[in-house]
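Course assignment 3, question 2. Fill in each field.
Student: A.L.
Task: Predict the tertiary structure for the chain below.
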Amino acid sequence: MSNSSRTGLAVAGLSLGTALNPLNSSMIAVALVVLRADFGLDVATVTWVITAFYLTSAAGQPLMGRLADRFGPRRLFLWGMALVAVTCALAPFAPNFALLCVARAFMALGTATAYPSAIVMVAALARQANVKSTRPLGRIQMANTSAAAVGPVVGGLLVSLVGWQALFLVNVPLALASIFMVRRFAPADGEREHGEVRDLVRDSDLPGIGAFIGALVLVMMALLNVLPDYRWWLLAAGLLLAALFAWRELRFSAPFLDLRLLGRNRPLLLVYLGFALFNGVYYFAFFGLPQLLQTAGGYDPGIVGLLMLPLAAISVVLTPFAVRGIDRFGVRRVLIAGVVLLVVASGAMWLLTTSLAAPLVLALTALLGVPYCVVSISSSQGMYVSTRLEERGVAAGILQTCRYLGAITATVLIGIFYGSGVTQANWGLMVFVMLGLGAVVFVVSLVWREEREG
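Answer field:
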């Protein structure tokens, strides 16, 4: 088998594993009503099945990236997919809802290994096939962006035909297939850290890792308002822990997150800022539009899933063209073009204040799919070229955390705007916020400069 064929199959396995995290983060939404009925839950309690996944994914991605950088991305990817397969095979038999949430957390931890590991392996895969890094990176990013968009459609079909248990069971063959392809065709890990377990643990900055995860989880719990009576206490504790984390990292010789280096890496910081704000704009539509269509438009949930499908379809179709554009024109020009389209698509969403006709909704979701694809792949490539090889795992993990921060911020703001009712008028107010965020992303994209070659 040629190196090109082996690389293609390896990238397919990595892409499949990468898709599992965004797929499972979105398709569970259609099962909330069924889970409430089966376990006898109220609305606030059932959302923990989503919250557990979000918190674990957002906190786990940078940690998994750090482990991939230190001990080998291929090895970590295989262990993560094995954890997903075992967890999802057992989860349908959970005797209570609490254990089901625990299973979702373990599933999130396993799937969190995929994207950072895949990013670390991009350089080796590109060398093996003698192609530019944008080729394998584009395919991995396509899986990462399109999976979240198709999640509600896939989830709706599985729940209606089989039940909520199918949302777990479907991951088993997918995880096993990714294990087979990556184990069989991906290049072996290069030389990584070895030594006594005691020494490796000592140099792993476990207090820093714990402080990072704790601060992120506490702040996100405050933003998600999972414990309303303790919201401000959670936020204060999270900010205090974040300050202690920064103090620790600045003093430790081998920090989990090198804040000094990150502070000097202006291109990477701009990528993170722009990507978080971009996802805030996108998730305004992804979370806010289905509610508008169901409540104000009277659409059935299954129809709403189909109306949102162009987001994924456009992403799949256009990602190869975006990759070629980056190869030809560079990351910055493609990123700026994508952000301009984002502002245009956001402004066009105002038309939904006048009509919720299905053809208009389809056209607008398809239009939003264009910048979603272009900005996502440009941001990933911008992150890739703004970091050193030995830091790309943790950098990729933080990029995914920025996605979740943008999504959670959008969720909080949607709750505020829809607080007085899910109406077309309130949707119009959200469009103005989308335009404002898009304008900030545009400024960030203008300032960003590519300073390192990938």
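Instructor remarks: The chain is about 80% helix and 0% strand. The longest helix spans residues 266-295.
Grade: pending
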